[in-house]
Structures are given as C-alpha cells and as structure tokens.
Amino acid sequence: MYLALDIGGTFVKYAWMEKDGTMLNQGQIATITDDLEAFYASLLPIAAQHTLQGIAISSPGVIDSQSGLIRVVTLIPCLNGVNIKKDLEARLGVPVSVENDAKCAALAELWKGAVQSYPTSLITVLGSGIGGAVIIDGKLYKGLRSKAGEIGTILCDFDPGTQKAVTFGRKNSAVWLVRDMAKALGLDHEDGREIFEYVKQQDPRVYPLFEEYCWNLAMVLFNIDYVLDLDCIALGGGISAQDILIEKVQECFMQLRSQYKEDDHDPVIVRCAFKNEANLLGAMYHFLQSTKMA
User: Fold this and answer.
1) Are residues 238 and 126 in the same domain?
2) From edge to edge, which strands make up the β-sheet containing 69-72?
3) CA distances from 95 to 68, 98, 177, 217, 239 (A)
4) Is residue 255 in a domain?
5) Is 30 exposed, middle or buried (0-12, 13-18, 19+ CB in 10 A)?
6) How far apart are the first and last CA of the chain?
7) Shared-domain flag, residues 192 and 130
8) Which CATH number does the domain housing residue 67 bear?
9) Residue 181 belongs to what domain range?
10) Number of domains present in the structure of the chain
11) Pair (265, 184) in one structural domain
C-alpha cells in the first residue's frame, strides 16, 4: 500500500491508500516544526503500520517537486531547505514524491473531482488567504518557478496610509469576512454557519459585506478568465460549502460578462468536490504521475 501525508503547520494527516485512490485508514499526528530528526522520527511508526510501497507528500511552501526540495516553508521551519524526498527514500527505501498543498488539492479535483471533464480550469481555495492552481490542457501548470495559479498574491488595491499594495488574499480573506460579519452582528464568536444564516436572510448588517466579497472575487476571476480562457472555475475552502456563495459569485460573474461580452463562452463556476481529503488524494495522484505508475 501507499502512504499519503498531508503536512500542515499543526498536524500531519495521513492515509493508507490503494493505487486507485481508495483510502483504507486515516489518522493524524502533531507536526514537529523545529527539529528535523524528531519530525522524521514521528513518521516512522506510521510507515511501519503496513507494507510500504511508496510515500506521497503534500506540503505547504515553495517546492521543487522534481528534486523533492522544499525551498521555503514558513509554517514548519525545520523543513526549510530540506530535500524531503531524498531523506525519506534513504531512510525507508521506497519512492517518495512531494508537491505543494494547493497544487495537490487541484490535482485531486483533476483526477476525481470537479474539473476532471474540463481541460482548462482554475481551482481557487478560499480561507485565511487564497490559494490556487491552474490546469491547462488537462495538466497542472506550475510555471518556471512554481508560482502559477497563486492568485492570492495578485495586487488588487493600494493603501495610501502604509504606501503598500494590498494582495487579493489579504483583501478577500474568507476568515476576515466571517470576522467582520460577526463584529457587525455584535457576536462574541465567529461561527460561520450561524453567521451565514443572517446572510441568507439578507440581513442589512452583513449582506453588504458578503456582496462586496463576492464582487471582488468575481472581478478577479473574470480577469483571469480573459487571460486563460477557462472552461471551469472550481471554488474550495470551508466557505464554499455555502450554496449562497457559489450562486452569488456566479451572478456577479454573469453581470460582468453582460457588460463586457465578446463571445458566447462562459466558464462553469462550481464547488470543489473534495474537502479535508483533497491534499491526500492529490498527493497520491502526483506520486503516480511522477513515478509513471498512473
């Protein structure tokens, strides 16, 4: 069997998987962030649970997936500049692959999810920031330095007070949206499900904030569509579970299209199929592709 690892700043999630992506059992351990040898040691008991044929890794950070080098990862300092592929192959004697977590989420959607029928797609993950990945001609497009698809770093505003540009990931953070709406409602907690009940009722205290969020998102997606000529845009992250978000972004996008329509093609805007298991599944697909086993 194959071991898929989703390395995060708090937990390392894992799943034992078959070649077809079937997950047999899952679990998680705390991430050791400051001691490389201790980090590797924490993985060994997991790797010993079954007969190991290979390891597929999803990790945050800037990653050279071909060599296995994690160039930069702020959440897990002990992995900065580490070739995790080379290290684990030497320790465990099986092939290892590693890819960026947002890219893995996109690969899951390409393999078995929302964009498998759409050759040119954008996958956008809405959370504390905004992650993304681009599929062109049915393949993950990373660019020369693996930056392609990272729409959260698009500069979309300018703060005259700080004299600094504002990134799209900061301006349109889903976490900040929920926080701002909770404040507007006078709540002392930030329960997204509860807050979205007010949004569905178009409560005037929060609905304008929600509308602004959707318009900002739709405008950036509209611009990207004109650059890439997309077949599909898939929205992920916890907030994407809200039907009203998908519907409102679709509505805003179509209003923009009605103003600037030059053709009859519109990309489909859908919800990502996978949630917590996306990175694990995408890591497995990347492993199969990189080891030519697919």
Assistant:
1) yes
2) 62-64, 69-72, 82-83
3) 11, 11, 42, 40, 36
4) yes
5) exposed
6) 15
7) yes
8) 3.30.420.40
9) 114-271
10) 2
11) yes
Q: Does residue 209 lie in a domain region?
A: yes
Q: Model pTM?
A: 0.86
The DSSP output letter for 184 is H
Edge-to-edge strand ranges of the sheet holding 11-17: 23-30, 11-17, 2-7, 54-59, 96-100
Confidence category of residue 293, pLDDT binned at 50, 70, 90: low
Residues 197-255: pLDDT tens digits?
Answer: 999 999 999 999 999 999 999 999 999 999 999 999 999 988 999 999 999 999 999 99
Of the candidates 100, 133, 148, which is a domain's last residue? 100
Rounded CA separation 52/157 (Å): 49
CB atoms within 10 A of CB 119: 15
Which tokens is 142 given? 């990373």
258 assigned to some structural domain: yes
Q: Residue 264 pLDDT more than 80?
A: no
For residue 32, what is the DSSP state? P
Residue 294 has pLDDT above 70, yes or no: no
| For helices 278-290 and 101-112, angle between their N-to-C axes, nearest 10 degrees | 80
Is it the case that residue 182 has pLDDT exceeding 70?
yes
Model confidence over 120-151: pLDDT tens digits?
Answer: 999 998 988 888 899 999 999 988 887 888 88
Residue 74 · residue 64 · CB < 8 Å: no
What's the sign of the alpha-carbon dihedral 239, 240, 244, 250?
positive
The answer as to whether 233 is a domain residue is yes
Q: Same structural domain for residues 118 and 46?
A: no
Q: Are residues 38 and 127 in the same domain?
A: no
Tokens 């020369």 — which residue?
Answer: 144
